[in-house]
Amino acid sequence: MLHDILKKFLNGLLTLFVVISITFFLIRLLPGGPFDQARKLPPAIQANMEAKYHLNEPLLSQYFSYMNNILHGDLGPSYKYLTRNVNDIVGQASMVSFTIGGLALLLGVSLGIIMGTFAGMTSNRWLDGILSAVGISSISMPNFIFGAFLVMIFAYYLNILPAARLAGPQHYILPVLTLSLTPFAYTFLLIRTTVKEVRLQQFVTIKRCFGIPDLRITFGHVLRNSLIPLISILGPISAAIITGSFAVELIFAIPGLGKYFVTAVTNRDYTVVMGITIVYSVLLILFNTLTDIIYALVDPRFREQGKMSQ
Amino acid sequence: MKHRPIKLYLSLGILGIVLLITVLGPLIGPDPTFINPNLPTVGPSMGHPFGTDELGRDLFSRLAVGGQISLMIGLATALVAVVIGTAYGTLAAFFEGRSLDTLMMRVLDVLYSLPSVMIVILFTLFMNKTMAHVALSLTHLGFPDLRGLMNITGLVLALALFSWPDTARIIRGQVLSLKREEFVEAYYSLGGKPLRLVFSHFIPNLTALIILTATITVPRAILTESTLSFIGLGVSPPYSSWGTMINSGWQMIRIAPHLILLPGFFLFITMVALNLLGDSLKELLEPKSA
């Protein structure tokens, strides 16, 4: 078990190293640099700026010094925000993005579990049809359309919620709702299918014969079995939230990681792009590794398999 | 089958209508590039059934042309992803248990853990640059200016980069089980060669699965493309997709909501239809899970 965890952890580090290297060279292969602007700088000043940030050195030596800095926890200076370094920018933007992403994850998954369980329980043809439509619609709806729709209704027509920026608690409602759409859809569809499958098993029939109420069987016994597969899609769900946050942060003018990333890519602000990519990669790798570990801990069958293979 | 595949009919019906509009639209509607400064952001009317955009261009024709781009990107991405994924998956399965297979699977693991949007964004920009060079050298050879088309090709390749691992994994699993079938033993004992086994026996056996994975890949590619186009880093002028139209509609949302609602609606129903199609094909292939 410990051996497996260690192996997963090392694999994660390797992946991170690959991501950092790919991003480092990919962004430097793009046309233009951080100091190429519409209004051209005098060549001497541009050369000075590039020398200040060591951008005139050979690519490989830049790469090694960057890697060295990362090992010391330093993501470097930003080329555009001259008073702030990347650690500072990424730290602040992470707080914003993680708050909204975390809330959306919580909301989407809990709603998905509750509605998915009811959808799996129902034997009413009409209700099942309606809930199927809800499932397929929520998985098919691009979240920026959903977000634009929410803004139109709640901010412009009903005028009860703010349309953009994060000035107070009520400003979080629309972005979190928008971002929770995809986690909701994934969870809902998975729980619905697994609840349906588990309910066909013998132990459920036996419990029903003993006269235990349907709701108690479902929430007490069926759901517990259905939650295990949910762990396995936490990785894809968090990846979907990251993807979704790009559009959501644009719609609601939220200064999060996605917004900074898009600006930094356009500005060729190399270090900011790298910093944000690293943060999100670490998050994803952590999620995937944790998923594997939790899965092994929760599911006894999986644990037995692990023992046998050792 | 007792119960009729309603999902399949519904999805094919929606897809048929969308295809009809996107293919025939530019032929029957007004010129989508014609700018009419007298009629900016007009709502639906007789001359313009879907109204006009901020430059007075006919929205119906623009939706049709934009839809062609979105659908084409989805299909092309699925095609590239399926070809690469099938080849990769089959190769890995043939080297099952050996270090090449382990290495190939490790590469997939790495691709799964990458924050794909960010790499796709960077890779798209990189491909744009490369493809612009290709287009430029083609113009020297006497070809017309293909830069716009090359930009879309770059986007497709970037999207395919993150679409093929799923196919590869599924195909590998299937080939692993095919390898254990009796007919394979018979084939080898008759003196058959592995390459021919793949092309004349495995690929036909995999067809249904390949079609299924392609069907699942199309909506994902369209979703990623539209998200990228919406944040301004996807399809770029002179071409436009539903995603770029939704982006410009978003900027006009208070003045002319139809500019975002109509492309949004088309994108949404296309996604619904494609997801339904994938679901119903899956049910047809694995009747147990239905």
Break the fold down into its secondary structure elements and pairings.
The complex is a heterodimer of chains A (about 300) and B (about 290).
Chain A: H1 2-29, H2 43-52, H3 59-71, H4 86-121, H5 125-140, H6 143-157, H7 173-199, H8 202-209, H9 214-232, H10 234-251, H11 257-267, H12 270-298, H13 300-309
Chain B: H1 6-28, H2 59-94, H3 99-113, H4 116-140, H5 147-161, H6 164-179, H7 182-189, H8 194-230, H9 242-251, H10 258-285
Helix pairs in contact in B: 1-2, 1-10, 2-3, 2-5, 2-6, 2-8, 2-9, 4-5, 6-8, 8-9, 8-10, 9-10
Describe this structure in words.
The complex is a heterodimer of chains A (310) and B (290). The longest helix of chain A has 36 residues, at 86-121. With 310 residues, chain A is mostly helical. Chain A is built from 13 helices and no strands. Chain A is flat, with a radius of gyration of 24 Å. Residues 306-310 of chain A have low confidence and may be disordered. Chain B is mainly alpha-helical and 290 residues long. Chain B has a single domain, classed as MetI-like (MetI-like fold, Orthogonal Bundle), CATH 1.10.3720. Chain B is 73% helix and 0% strand. Chain B has ten helices and no strands. Chain B has helices at 6-28, 59-94, 99-113, 116-140, 147-161, 164-179, 182-189, 194-230, 242-251, 258-285. Chain B is globular, with a radius of gyration of 22 Å. The N and C termini of chain B lie close together (12 Å). The relative contact order of chain B is 0.15. Chains A and B meet through helix 1, helix 5, helix 6, helix 10 and helix 11 of A and helix 3, helix 4, helix 8, helix 9 and helix 10 of B.
